[in-house]
Amino acid sequence: MSAQEVSAQEVGELEAQEARLVLPRFTYEDAWTLGGLLVGMARERGAPVAIDIRRGPQQLFHCALPGSSADNDAWIDRKRRVVERYGVSSFLVGARFRAKGTTFEASSRLDPDRYAAHGGAFPVAVEGAGVIGSVTVSGLPQAEDHAMVVEALERLLSSYASAAG
Predict the structure, then answer these.
(1) Distance of CA 136 to CAs 11, 70, 107, 153, Å?
(2) Which of its termini does the chain have fewer beta carbons within 10 Å around, N or C?
(3) For the segment 124-153, what is each residue's pLDDT rounded down to a tens digit?
């Protein structure tokens, strides 16, 4: 399999995640719950991350765990801007550029000091409303940042189903 085929497969998997992780609602309490899930996961794993959750431009949750730094906040801002601009995860945006045989930095024409298509920022999408915010983790390798956010969103979505149940 060529590198381009691997990237095309990766793109499909990332798109499927986003299609699956659409929430029935996203309130202030839901943001707090999601943030708590991420903090708990990070503490269990000893992950030195910073976490940011937003609805529109409003920051609803932020936490910096031991080992993280202000640099992680800068990465959060850069990855979040990619979600805001493209409406999909920062990891998916980077994968789409790689699938075309290029990189985000080389081909997006966006300032790399303001935008980073690295894993860790994921859109908060709500049924009937679309993307209304973002959740971002920074501090681990990009695939791990992304995976942590996906796992937390899966847990949150599962909790809605359990409560309805």
Answers:
(1) 19, 14, 23, 11
(2) C
(3) 999 999 999 999 999 999 999 999 999 999
The tens digit of pLDDT for each residue in 57-111 reads 999 999 999 999 999 999 999 999 999 999 999 999 999 999 999 999 999 999 9
Contact in structure between 124 and 132 (CB atoms under 8 Å):
yes
The Cα 46–Cα 66 span in angstroms is: 9
In this predicted structure, the answer to whether residue 1 has a pLDDT above a threshold of 50 is: no
- The pLDDT of residue 163: 81
* CA gap 54, 140 in Å, rounded: 20
Dist CA 44 CA 23 (whole Å): 25
Q: 102: which 2 tokens?
A: 């290029």
* CA nearest to 53, candidates 110, 123, 128: 123
Sign of CA dihedral 75, 124, 47, 147: negative
Tell how far CA 161 is from the center of its chain. Answer: 22
**Listed residue (80, 95, 62) closest to 131, CA to CA:** 80
